[in-house]
Fold this sequence. Notes:
The chain is 0% helix and 29% strand. It has strands at residues 3-4, 20-25, 28-29, 44-49, 56-57, 73-78, 81-82, 97-102, 109-110, 126-131, 134-135, 148-153, 160-161, 177-182, 185-186, 201-206, 213-214, 230-235, 238-239, 254-259, 266-267, 283-288, 291-292, 308-313, 320-321, 340-342, 345-346, 360-362. The strands form 14 sheets. It has a two-stranded antiparallel sheet. Strands 2-4 form a two-stranded antiparallel ribbon.
Amino acid sequence: CPDWTNWTNWTECSATCGGGSRFKVRECVLPDVRNVQQCPGPDKISEECNEDPCPSLTEWSDWSECSLTCGGGTRSKRRECVYPRNSVKNDCLERLEISESCNQQVCPAFTEWTDWTECTKTCGGGVRKKVRECVLPKSVGGCLGDSEYEEACNEQSCPVWTDWTEWTECTKSCDGGTQRRERKCVLPNEKSALFCPGPDNEERKCNLNRCPTWTSWTEWTPCTKTCNSGMKTKLRECIIPKYGNQSLCEGESLRNEVCNTEECPSWTEWTDWTPCTKTCGGGSRTKVRECVLPKSGTSETLCVGEKEATEECNLDTCPDWTDWTEWTPCTETCGGGNKKRTRECITQRNGDSSCEGEREEVA
């Protein structure tokens, strides 16, 4: 009898999704006999396969930003393969990303950087910068990057000035003098080549007001002594300006000088007083001295003062008589009688002297 071979394996499905078909076959093996009937049944069978819905492609995205603004960059756009929920993963079998060239125009370019500028400070932290220029082709935007670059420089500590000293005293009290003040530069270290900017001393004018002035000296006064070193004097006055500082004139307003230094003649001691010229009623008495000239004999000046001194003495009032009384009647009317009159002696209470003359007179 004829006989079938075994079925082959299923062929590959004609579609990976969305419904395809596959088949398998077998052959009928016939005996080497004529007029034998064929094998019963089909020699090929088919069936549907991969009936799950196929994944679908989304719309293309917009082109991405060009990777370069000039000089030839690339840009791309993408789409996605969307799988149904109940399907087995299956690629869409299409390109999901495409790229193309963009911005093929020549790029602008910077020149070389310039040299660094001078630092803005010599110490204490300054800045310096360098620049470059953008060389532009026609109808192209600017260069990418900075056209100026800055960096810190000279960050070492600066030397510093001490505080100014107080102003010195003015060299003049008026008519314009000067005064000074100083300061010192303190270096951050001994090897520093830097120095503080500015002067280390200052000077300014001071006391610009006019000075008071002296009048001329007066003549010398007479010497206070004619010998034995006296003193003579001359004066001047300070005239003060109507404006400005009222400070006094510099110098002395009075000047003394020794004069008549030669030795003076001298007096001897006074003698004793002479007896009073009266015992009462005011008399006088006298004492004398002599002028002794110096041995040098150079003095032409006599002794100063009197060689004789007189003073009053016995100033007590003298005893004195009152006036005479009237005569008494005559003791006889004829033949010779007598009459009398009297007076009284008036003396000081403490006086012992009596009046001179008679107290009673008879005629």
